[in-house]
Structures are given as structure tokens and as C-alpha cells.
Write a structure and sequence with these properties.
With 187 residues, this protein is of the alpha+beta class. The chain is built from seven helices and six strands, in the order H-H-H-H-H-H-E-E-H-E-E-E-E. The protein has helices at 3-18, 29-42, 46-57, 62-73, 80-87, 89-99, 132-138, and strands spanning 104-110, 116-119, 146-147, 151-153, 158-169, 172-182. Helix 5 (80-87) crosses helix 6 (89-99).
């Protein structure tokens, strides 16, 4: 074995022994517990519920949502209509939550079709309705906690797990919220 190969192997062993998170792993029990307690409660925050209720009341068609998604995907940077979702009352609430703990990478709220209502940071797309984060947490109005596998996030250069929970107005599920958590920082 060459000296370089031995060094690479030694580093690999150290990484494995250090307990560092890697892509494809299941979320830790600490992440699961956080999702089922603290994060689930955020789905009943009055500011978030009010914003989702208002967005649902607009009665947008799925075609309108998909048209906005195309526009979103074709827009580089952060356009004013995107910034509005970060600076509205709900977006400000999400930014406050994000600042409250070092493990939050991003937080965004979706309406009953999976369209963005507010966000702490620009999302890669506007419509989440065809993705597990929405499908599994909204559950056709039944609501559930959905926890993704750990994935490497290029934008934050960290291993992230997405925890998605329903947004509830009283006992009724009206939308969903996704938390991108830095898997290495959840204690």
C-alpha cells in the first residue's frame, strides 16, 4: 500500500469513527424527536396559520401554480415576488425561528396545493406539491410528520435532513411546513 493510500484510508476511518453524518443515512433519533415535538408545534403558529388560510382563500388553480413555478425556475437571483414571501409577516416569523437555533438551514410554508406561502430563504422552486415533503406531510388533508433521508445540500455545503409537518387550523390540515436541518448540528 502506498503512503498516499494509507493516508486516505486513515482519514476515512477517522470520519467513520467521528460519527459524522453522510448522505443517504436515515435521520437521527434526535431529528425524529425534534420533528414530532417542537417542529410539529410550529405548524399551529397563529401567524403561519393566518398566512396559509389567506393563501388558500385565493382559490388558485393548479395550472396557475404550475405557471408560477415555471416563472420561478426561469428567474435567476431573488425577484421582488420572491422577496415578498421572505419579508411578509409569515416570512419574518420563519426568519426568527431560523435564528433561534444553529441547525436551521431553511424553512418554508406551503398552501393546500404545495405552493410557497412564505420562506426564510429562496427555495429552488415554487411548487412543492409533487414532492414527498408536501405529499407525505399534507397527506391529502390528514397530515403527518415526514422526515427525509440525509442529503448533501450544495447551497449550504452541509448534510441536511428535511422535516415536514402539517399546518393546522384548529384540527384541520390546511398546508405544510418544511424545515431543512443541518444534520450535524442537531444536538
Amino acid at each position: 500500500m502506498t503512503k498516499a493510500a494509507a493516508q486516505v484510508m486513515a482519514v476515512a476511518v477517522l470520519v467513520l469513527l467521528s460519527g459524522a453524518v453522510s448522505a443517504g443515512e436515515k435521520a437521527s433519533q434526535k431529528v425524529v424527536d425534534l420533528g414530532r415535538t417542537t417542529l410539529l408545534k410550529v405548524g399551529t403558529d397563529p401567524v403561519i396559520v393566518k398566512a396559509v388560510r389567506a393563501e388558500n382563500a385565493k382559490g388558485k388553480t393548479l395550472a396557475q401554480v404550475k405557471d408560477m413555478d415555471k416563472k420561478w425556475l426561469a428567474t435567476p437571483g431573488v425577484a421582488d415576488y420572491m422577496k415578498a414571501l421572505m419579508t411578509n409577516e409569515c416570512g419574518a416569523r420563519l426568519k426568527g425561528i431560523k435564528k433561534s437555533a444553529p441547525y436551521y438551514e431553511e424553512i418554508f410554508v406551503m398552501d393546500n396545493q404545495g405552493a410557497n406561502v412564505c420562506m426564510s430563504d429562496k427555495t429552488s422552486d415554487y411548487w412543492q406539491g409533487d414532492e414527498d415533503k408536501f405529499i407525505e406531510s399534507y397527506k391529502g388533508g390528514a397530515g403527518a410528520v415526514h422526515i427525509s433521508d440525509v442529503k448533501f445540500d450544495e447551497s449550504s455545503q452541509s448534510y441536511v435532513v428535511q422535516v415536514s409537518v402539517p399546518v393546522k387550523d384548529g384540527g384541520k390540515v390546511i398546508g405544510a411546513i418544511t424545515f431543512g436541518l443541518n444534520a450535524d448540528k442537531v444536538q
